Amino acid sequence: MRMRRGVARGIMDLMSALKEKLRSDLSAAMKARDELRTRTLRMALTAVTTEEVAGKQARELSDDEIVKVLSREAKKRREAAEAFAQADRAEQAQAERDEGAVLDTYLPAQLPDEELAALVAAAVAESGAEGPRAMGQVMKLVNPKIAGRAEGGRVAAEVKRQLGT
What we know:
Layout: H1 2-14, H2 17-31, H3 35-53, H4 63-86, H5 90-104, H6 113-127, H7 135-146, H8 152-163
Helix pairs in contact: 2-3, 3-4, 3-5, 4-5, 6-7, 6-8, 7-8
């Protein structure tokens, strides 16, 4: 029996802090009978588990990888809300926005436009990039510094703007 407890404890140590927070928040939401949070957190944990077993070998995701999964799920919610709104389905659009808001609480704060512009300007200066062909160069320098704090589309738009394309 002691062996099993040790193994279980070792497995819990391997679990990322963010995944553990998602699980404990899911449990709290279920106890509080908060349907929105329960539904959203179940979906998020399912997406994380799916990502963990994808590929040739199952693995435990790091907090950074979990943030990427949650960012992807939040983006799906925004796109779905937009599609529902365009189809005059306000109730479903609001449900998607609400789920996105729950996911946003687990994501790092988005960079303000000024900070994003400053990071892109620094990358442009560092790379000496000029013109539209240098966009890839700048994106390679900027993306690691942004690390999930701004959507790729926003970053690309700012790079294009600064490169004058």
